[in-house]
Design brief:
Elements (H helix, E strand, L loop, with lengths): L2 H6 L14 H4 L12 H6 L5 H5 L3 H16 L6 H16 L2 E4 L2 H10 L4 E5 L1 H7 L4 E5 L3 H6 L10 E3 L1 H14 L2 E6 L5 E7 L5 H9 L10 E5 L13 H4 L5 E4 L4 E4 L19 E5 L11
Antiparallel strand pairs: 1-5, 2-3, 2-4, 3-6, 5-6, 7-10, 8-9
Helix pairs in contact: 5-11, 7-10
């Protein structure tokens, strides 16, 4: 299990621990730090707790500002300034916003654990980096109510959906191949289900372009292929193109696909397109070579 599960999971995954959705956690000392006293406050000009920021128009300054700052600060991954900033980011991300990939089945469980309906907004990443509007950001308690009362010009259209409707949306997004993730705000409070893609997603850009690990962590799983069930789909397997992370490779010699566990993120979106159900998810902690690769 990842360090978040060890610290806040209570014997399960951090995002499946009911305590992390409770009033006790929402009112805990973890939610009290002010970001103006951090590097993020200085860099982005934001004030207040992370929950205050992410449920107001400052959310755009944080989301878009963070993405722009990374693009500006990390042109060279190995210079001393980049190393120093990257070293300070894990603690900052814990008290602000970060996330972890989850497969569809875990995303559905998160919906069940949330209290009440879910507030759905257009994806700010797609609007800013892709120029497209898509209702795919699902805000849980407590962010949903706060956001619905402080909408910005980019927050339209929007709607409240029931748990049943949210689950149907997740299933459709899964068919499209979007990567699901649960984001904390702050850790370990599950605040949003993201359904996005690279290179559009700001958090994924931070991770894949600049190696800022905790902005978007790998899932608690790893995909594996049953070689006896895979037939390579006559040389044109759809699973290879579904993988955002380039983990699935087709071998003309073997006539099958294989999955590199070091590249696999365990998101599971490769599974639905396999006509033989040859791809399954295994707990990351049971795959020795990548059990500590997040």
């Amino acid at each position: 299990m990842c360090r978040y599960c060890v610290k806040w999971g209570g014997g399960t995954k951090w995002y499946l621990n009911p305590k992390n959705y409770s009033d006790e956690m929402l009112k805990s000392e973890l939610t009290k730090p002010k970001l103006e006293d951090t590097m993020a406050g200085d860099l982005l000009g934001i004030k207040g707790t992370i929950q205050e920021i992410m449920t107001s128009v400052q959310r755009f300054r944080y989301d878009i500002g963070f993405g722009e700052a990374l693009d500006a600060v990390f042109p060279d991954l190995h210079d001393e300034a980049s190393k120093a900033i990257r070293g300070a980011l894990p603690d900052l991300v814990d008290m602000a916003v970060g996330g972890q990939a989850v497969p569809l089945e875990d995303a559905l469980k998160i919906v069940d654990l949330n209290e009440g309906d879910i507030f759905v907004l257009p994806c700010v990443c797609r609007k800013y980096y892709g120029g497209k509007e898509k209702l795919s950001c699902m805000f849980l308690r407590p962010a949903g109510k706060g956001l619905s009362e402080s909408l910005g010009p980019w927050d339209k259209p929007n709607k409240w959906v029931s748990k049943k409707e949210a689950k149907e949306m997740l299933k459709e997004l899964d068919k499209e191949g979007t990567v699901h993730a649960v984001f904390w705000c702050p850790a370990p409070i599950p605040t949003m289900i993201c359904n996005c893609e690279y290179p559009i997603c700001i958090a994924l850009r931070a991770r894949l372009n600049y190696d800022v690990e905790d902005t978007f962590r790998k899932a608690e799983y790893v995909s594996e292929v049953d070689p006896n069930a895979c037939d390579g789909c006559d040389g044109t397997p759809k699973c290879t193109s579904r993988c955002t992370f380039g983990a699935i490779k087709y071998s003309p010699t073997a006539g099958k696909v294989s999955i590199n566990p070091f590249q696999c993120w365990g998101c599971g979106v490769c599974r639905p397109v396999c006509p033989h159900n040859a791809i399954s998810l295994s707990p990351r902690e049971e795959v020795a070579q990548v059990k500590d690769v997040w």
